[in-house]
Amino acid sequence: MSSCLAGFRLTHKLARTLTIKRTHTDPGHSSKRQMTKMAKIVLTETETEICTLLNRVADHIRATTNEQLTLRIAGGWVRDKLLGLASHDIDIAVDHMSGFTLAQHVTSYMQLHSIATSSVGKINSNPSRSKHLETATTKVLGQFVDFVHLRSETYEEDSRIPQIEFGTPEEDARRRDITINALFYNLQTREVEDFTGRGLKDLEEGVVRTPMDAEQTFKDDPLRVLRVLRFASRFGYEIEKETARAMEREVVRSELERKISRERVGVEVEKMAEGERPVLAIQLILKFGLYECVFRAPSRETWADDVDVDAMAAESVTRCTLKMLDEASLHALIPSQYSVTLHDRRILILASYVYPFHAAVAADRKRNASVALLVVRDGLKLPTNDADSIAAVHMLVPRITAMAALCCAGPVERNTLGHLIRDAGARWIVATVFAAAVQLHKGVSTDQVVATFSAFIRAVKEAELEDAFKLKHIVNGRDVATLLGCRTGPGIKPVLDRIMDWQLAHPRGTHDECREFIIEEIAPHMPL
Fold first, then answer.
1. From CA 7, how far away is CA 37, in angstroms rounded?
2. Any idea which of 112-121, 123-132, 185-194, 251-260 has the lowest mean pLDDT?
3. Using CA atoms, how far apart are residues 365 and 29, in angstroms rounded to an integer?
4. Cβ(512)–Cβ(479) below 8 Å
5. 453, 407 Cβ separation under 8 angstroms
6. Cβ–Cβ contacts within 10 Å for residue 419, how many?
7. Which residues, 6+ apart, have CB-to-CB distance to 474 below 8 Å?
């Protein structure tokens, strides 16, 4: 085995069981993970079958072409399996041929042995989306597997798009973002290979570091700064000191601002928001002075007012949002059809991240728009639906907060409550959770926040208004126009609004009673 393995070795001891063994002593070591010096990884039955099949393919290629290739599983799968986590993200790295060619060999071999196959897909390189290498993908024993070739990268001074060549395992490991993502599992020897010499130790100690000089690594591809933050927050790991110092340098921040597309920034932020530790993620963004760079707002010249942006509020609101998401007594009241989903949680975390912009408005395409919306839509390039949802949640906070206070104080008229639910739409529960979090952020006690917003949810349920936004007019616009002797069109909207107000106030009202209301209360006041 290469000396680059730096004394680390992982040997296949049992069928489907792998064992890490550290063969040198480190007197300064104290494990911060729940990994012992003899940590085990258990392969699933499917993973074992896939590895065996791919080894047979490699043997077949060697026998028929004299190509002495080696297959390795690369990156995240190795890391996750060492941590005892399930992973379905199998990336096969091959030397001496392209991933697409290997995938074709795999498919041909499976067809030869009457094993079900699927077509080989080719994902072309797309540097603007941080996809620097062509990847092939196909199903192997029912599971998608990606195939790439080992590579080396060199960078021009003014670009994060590398020049790519076939590389050795050592070169491929060194060009990766962090050491714990640079581990390989050799299918032939059934060993984990640590060509950086630090990956296994860093995984055991809970450390995030770059394989090579951190500043140069970040200057080559500044996206790695955000990936360091994401993996540190995902696993709760510490960022190694030299890596952290490099992230704090102005030249690195400048390169991040200059070279990285907003789409790539958005992808990393989205993954942080969806992770287990979104508070730690925003803490790290703030700690390294990256908030304005990551959450890029439109130029201040376009803002309607000079609003103060307190970036630190993002951490507090995120923490309070998670607290409200964990508040069992509040969620026990939520109607089952509106239970908070993973998508809702993602929207709430993103809304928390951009909360510092909630009061700001800026010009946008000949109209004004929430700066938070523009940050999400343009600064992070996330879907317009996400931006609209986040802006709506921000906008609903004061209205829901005020209504919750009224509900806590006493009965509220059904139509008043119903109009709010109709305006909020299906997101009324998400907006309620966020409004509660904002109150907690502002210093209101947890008990008071829970009592107030529980009263609001309870009032909505008791009035049977959970689905008020789905309510249709009991008398439609065409029938209203006929009753009033007027034309349909935008001009009839105020009349329909009054009809809806009547419906909300009279939940048992009939079609005939509504017609009577129109004739007696609305018609006499219509202009001739």
1. 13
2. 123-132
3. 58
4. no
5. no
6. 19
7. 499, 503, 509, 510, 511, 514
The alpha carbon of 21 is separated from its chain's Cα centroid by a whole number of angstroms, namely 35
Write out pLDDT tens, residues 40-87. Answer: 667 899 999 999 999 999 999 999 888 889 999 998 999 999 999 989
Q: Are 199 and 182 spatial neighbours (Cβ–Cβ below 8 Å)?
A: yes
pLDDT at 24: 31
CB 74 within 8 A of CB 99: no
> What gap in Å lies between CA 277 and CA 237, rounded to an integer?
11
Residue 397 CB: number of other CB atoms within 10 A?
20
Q: Could you tell me whether strands 238-239 and 207-208 are parallel, antiparallel, or unpaired per DSSP bridges?
A: parallel
Q: Which two tokens stand for residue 117?
A: 């196959």
Residue 489 CA to residue 204 CA, distance in Å, equals: 68
Is the pLDDT score of 163 beyond 80? no
Between strands 17-22 and 151-154, the pairing is unpaired
Q: How far is the CA of 84 from the CAs of 87, 317, 341, 378, 510, in angstroms? A: 9, 32, 26, 38, 61
> What is the percent of the chain with per-residue pLDDT over 90, rounded to a whole number?
75
- For 413, the 3-state DSSP assignment is coil
Question: How is residue 276 written in tokens?
Answer: 């287990």
User: Hey, which residues does 121 pair with through a beta bridge?
Assistant: 137
The gap from C-alpha 413 to its chain's centroid, in whole angstroms, comes to: 40
Instruction: Outline where 24-88 has alpha helix (H).
Output: 45-65, 76-82
Quickly list H helices, 236-261.
241-248, 250-259
- Residue 165 token pair: 């060549």
Q: Is residue 56 within 8 Å of 109, Cβ to Cβ?
A: yes
Question: Quick check: 526 and 486 in contact, CB under 8 A?
Answer: yes
* Contact call for residues 7 and 32 (beta carbons, < 8 A): no
Taking only the tens place, the pLDDT of each residue in 477-512 is: 889 988 888 888 888 889 999 999 999 999 999 999
Q: Round to whole Å and give the CA distance between 51 and 69.
A: 15
DSSP 518: I
Kindly calculate the radius of gyration of the chain based on its CA atoms and give it in whole angstroms. 29
- Three-state DSSP class for 91? strand
Q: Which of 185, 176, 195, 173 is nearest to 78 (CA)?
A: 185
